[in-house]
Design a protein that fits this description.
Elements lengths: L3 H14 L92 H8 L8 E3 H12 L3 H15 L6 E3 L5 H4 L39 H11 L5 H18 L4 E2 L4 H12 L12 H10 L15 H14 L5 E2 L8 E2 L7 E2 L2 E2 L3 H13 L13 H15 L5 H4 L10
Antiparallel strand pairs: 1-2, 3-4, 4-5, 6-7
Helix pairs in contact: 3-4, 4-11, 4-12, 7-8, 7-10, 8-10, 10-11
The structure holds protoporphyrin IX containing FE (HEM) and 2-acetamido-2-deoxy-beta-D-glucopyranose (2 copies).
Protein name: Heme haloperoxidase family profile domain-containing protein
GO molecular function, one term: peroxidase activity
InterPro entries: Chloroperoxidase, Chloroperoxidase-like_sf
Length: 415
């Protein structure tokens, strides 16, 4: 088991025995085993060849003033505080649950799949930046800042910033692309947004490329650990267990700064999924609705106070500090872990060494790619990263807000 203490010892030991261990930053991405080593990617799960195509693309249900939800439309900020917001609103039949068909794309994110099943996103699974920003606010009470960050990560890493389109699962480049070079893998794309040690999804390599399907066995394990309370403590413990499993069973395990997003996603179980969000109860029945049925529970209300970037950064920090783990990866064999040594003020001796503000800054860097390739940067086209910075710089650079006061160094900040 890697604990903070044993890891520090490991680093000291390795640093003397293998002086290269602490010098991973300038290594090519394939220094770690977990590169896109997909010999024949064409017919793998998630690939373009196996991706369903629904010719009947409808788009999300348009904004209707009769049912404003949290008031978000056209990708702009909604009310932010969202009182008495029942979703779907009684009578708003356009947002009632519709089971996905065989031609509809679904992917690794239960929050997004559920929203698509309720037509807050296009039901076929080809969505847009604007739909994502509106949906997160209106359905879940996500703050505008976090809604933009997550949508930017999705579209910037896995979609097309010019068309604004994103597949919520498999590679649907033929329908998302504006003509930019390169495939747009969708949310299934590995080590862009999706990564190893997910709560209920397999790691990529042991599963032959399917890291996005819901795995019932993992869900049962999580439920066994949580015992009806999917709160912060349980997420902290279960995420740690998942890390150890990946370390021990996945020769190509890779844990980058983007993996911090997985702690963020884990916080959604207790901050966003319960009726009334953080004021509600993260119980088994609620989780069954989101993970197994991908449907909003009956008589369900969104969170009231917005879930913002500072709040999610604090949750990520708290879970990480509960069981600190090293950044790095296995190098082609199980238990062959090599840590990433130093990174700015954020990572030292492979461990996160910053504050919640530092977490927020690393989230920013995950989206704008302002990070060395050993951290999972490097494979995203510059145009995408510049676009991401143009979306996020106004939010992270507004010094009148709590987030702006974190003073994250901004990328591509010529303005
Ligand atoms: C634009 C917004 C969003 C995008 C692009 C997005 C994308 C993703 C992706 C790619 C994953 C897979 C990560 C992995 O396991 O490797 C994921 C996981 C997850 N997402 Fe989202 N997400 C978004 C918003 C949300 C929201 C608003 C919620 C909750 C209301 C949510 C709940 C979750 C949960 C619980 C997981 C973990 C699933 C698991 O590990 O089994 N997401 N999301
Ligand atoms: C689900 O996860 C378990 C535990 O990692 C694994 O043994 C099993 O093969 C996975 N099931 C599928 C269908 O991939
Ligand atoms: C949970 C799940 O669907 N797992 C899949 C993992 O990937 C393998 C190989 O593609 C599939 O056979 C499994 O069904």
């Amino acid at each position: 088991m890697l604990t903070k203490g044993s890891l520090a010892a490991l680093f000291v030991a390795q640093a003397s025995a293998f002086p290269w261990v602490l010098d991973t930053l300038n290594r090519p991405r394939d220094y770690f085993g977990d590169v896109e080593k997909r010999q024949d990617t064409q017919f793998l799960p998630g690939s373009a060849a196996s991706c369903p195509n629904n010719p009947n693309h409808q788009g999300a249900v348009p904004f209707n003033p009769k049912y404003p939800y949290c008031g978000a439309k056209n990708g702009l900020p909604g009310y932010q505080v969202c009182v008495n917001n029942q979703v779907p609103a009684p009578g708003d039949t356009a947002h009632y649950y519709v089971k996905p068909g065989k031609l509809d794309i679904r992917g690794p994110c239960p929050g997004i799949n559920t929203a698509a099943n309720h037509n807050f996103l296009s039901h076929d699974g080809i969505t847009t930046f604007t739909e994502l920003v509106d949906m997160q606010q209106n359905v879940y009470g996500v703050g505008y800042d976090l809604a933009v960050l997550l949508a930017t990560l999705g579209v910037g890493l896995d979609g097309d910033p010019i068309s604004g389109k994103l597949s919520i699962g498999c590679d649907a480049t033929s329908r998302t692309s504006s003509g930019l070079p390169g495939p747009e893998l969708g949310l299934d794309g590995h080590n862009k947004f999706e990564g190893d040690t997910s709560l209920t999804r397999n790691d990529y390599f042991p599963a032959g490329g399917d890291n996005f399907s819901f795995n019932k066995t993992l869900y049962k394990k999580m439920s066994d650990v949580c015992q009806g309370n999917f709160g912060r403590q349980c997420m902290t413990d279960y995420r740690y267990q998942r890390y150890q499993e990946s370390l021990n069973t996945n020769p190509n395990f890779f844990f980058s700064i983007k993996s911090l997003l997985l702690f963020g996603a884990a916080s959604f179980l207790y901050e966003l999924f319960p009726s009334l969000g953080d004021l509600g109860t993260p119980d088994q029945t609620t989780m069954d609705y989101f993970f197994k049925r991908e449907q909003l529970p009956p008589n369900w209300f969104s969170r009231v106070d917005p879930y913002t970037i500072p709040l999610v950064a604090a949750e990520i920090f708290a879970q990480y500090e509960g069981h600190p783990v090293a950044f790095g990866g296995n190098t082609g064999k199980t238990n062959s872990f090599v840590g990433i040594g130093q990174y700015g003020p954020y990572i030292s001796n492979g461990m996160f060494s910053g504050t919640p503000a530092g977490v927020a800054c690393l989230l920013y860097q995950s989206a704008t790619g302002n990070a060395p390739s050993a951290f999972g940067g490097g494979s995203i086209p510059t145009a995408n990263l510049e676009w991401a910075a143009s979306q996020l710089n106004p939010i992270f650079g507004d010094s009148s807000t709590e987030l702006g006061a974190f003073g994250c160094p901004l990328a591509y900040n010529s303005a």
